[in-house]
Write a structure and sequence with these properties.
Blueprint (H helix, E strand, L loop, with lengths): L2 E9 L2 E6 L5 E5 L6 H13 L18 E8 L5 E8 L5 E5 L2 E3 L2 H7 L2 E4 L5 H4 L2 H15 L3 H20 L6 H39 L5 E6 L8 H7 L1 H7 L10 E6 L2 E2 L6 H23 L4 E4 L8 H14 L2 E6 L3 H4 L8 E8 L5 E6 L5
GO molecular function, one term: single-stranded DNA binding
Organism: Halomonas halmophila
Family: Belongs to the RecF family.
Length: 371
């Protein structure tokens, strides 16, 4: 379902903002610091319950505002209004779907599937395994409906086992009980991840080949413990070393999806532009698989699409977005960098973002043929 209305209050440099985006491609152009990325940030909070720019959502509240209020409207049958509110004087995030309060961020995530492509997305290649696990788990969550329950049960058991380790209670009867829970739900998480990856990998390879020729690039999944051993055995035999470290060292919480060219990490070989195309292939493949398995489409948030891509690669990337028939919100400093990338039959809404004298964010519709 595409977003057909957005209304933000108290978001950074936007005191108030109302926008009716198009159902397909929405391009926002403006100078650095004009607020383009803040627009994407607001949509991200609506769909993820958190910002991609700050760990503390209160930091996204305008300096002269007491709260951040975000509203979105999904055009579907039935339509779904989404609301998020964060007050300066409260830690709790208030969330609503279709007018009803919800208590779990996962309900926002399920309702508005988002994929973000921005400079931080390079962490999929160069960052820690945590970001790659999150990437995998996003995909599993949206197509395997029992994954969230397995993940929660595993995390609960992990918390209890780690507490017992820190207190030296390795022979406590409850240790064996929590390890049985860990082994059961950890194996279930691993099974669900493997099933998703089996479906994802061919879609990724096809998408990658459409963007760039890297025949030797491979994704390799490591589940977080010896694949020849059962997790229950690993946990029991690892108690002493785990107690010395103070935490559980093996299990699905240690999984990784390595991205390699031959025997080396891809990030050590690829140029920055090539890295962006690999990351883009990962993100686009997520959306393609989601649509293939569920019939639902992702909303893409793409910050500074032209950066690090030549005209040919920009054109290919835009062709993928047009082919997928998804909704996208794209920012760019230079309007000319994207004006001619779109097929004439693709609905493209272009906006100019700039500050007024009082800091009010303004969105002015632009003619897509404007130079």
């Amino acid at each position: 379902m595409p977003l057909d209305r957005l209304a933000f209050q108290g978001l950074r440099n936007f005191k108030t903002l109302e926008l009716s985006p198009g159902p397909r491609i929405n391009v926002f152009v403006g100078e650095n610091g004009s607020g383009k990325t803040s627009l994407l940030e607001g949509i991200h909070v609506l769909g993820m319950g958190r910002s991609f720019r700050t760990r503390q959502l209160r930091n996204a509240i305008a300096h002269d505002a007491s709260e951040l209020v975000l509203h979105g409207h999904l055009d579907g049958e039935p339509p779904v209004p989404i609301g998020v509110r964060r007050r300066l004087d409260a830690d709790e995030l208030e969330m609503r779907l279709s007018g009803e309060k919800v208590g779990r961020v996962s309900e926002l995530v399920q309702t508005l599937p988002l994929q973000l492509i921005n400079p931080d997305a390079f962490r999929l290649l160069e960052g820690s395994p945590a970001g790659r696990r999150e990437f995998v788990d996003w995909g599993v969550f949206h197509v395997k409906h029992d994954f969230l329950d397995a993940w929660k049960r595993y995390r609960r058991a992990l918390k209890h086992r780690n507490a017992l380790l820190r207190h030296g209670r390795m022979q406590d009867a409850s240790m064996s009980a929590w390890e049985r829970e860990l082994a059961h739900w950890g194996a279930r998480m691993d099974d669900l991840r493997h099933a998703w990856l089996d479906a994802f990998l061919p879609v990724f390879q096809e998408t990658l080949e459409g963007l760039i020729s890297l025949p030797d690039l491979q994704l390799r999944y490591a589940r977080g413990w010896d694949r020849k051993r059962e997790l229950a055995e690993v946990l029991e035999q690892g108690r002493e070393t785990d107690q010395q470290m103070g935490f559980t060292q093996q299990g699905p919480q240690r999984a990784d999806l390595s991205i390699r060219l031959g025997r080396r990490p891809a990030v050590e070989i690829l140029s920055r532009g090539q890295q962006k195309l690999v990351v883009s292939a990962l993100k686009l493949a997520q959306g393609r698989l989601l649509e293939r398995l569920t019939g639902r489409s992702c909303v893409y948030l793409i910050d500074d699409l032209p950066a690090e891509l030549d005209d040919g690669r920009k054109r290919i990337f835009c062709e993928w977005l047009m082919h997928m028939r998804c909704q996208a919100f794209i920012t760019s400093v230079d309007p000319g960098a994207l004006m001619e990338q779109w097929d004439p039959n693709t609905p493209v809404s272009m906006f100019h973002v700039k500050h007024s004298e009082v800091g009010q964010g303004q969105l002015l519709p632009m003619d897509r043929q404007t130079s």
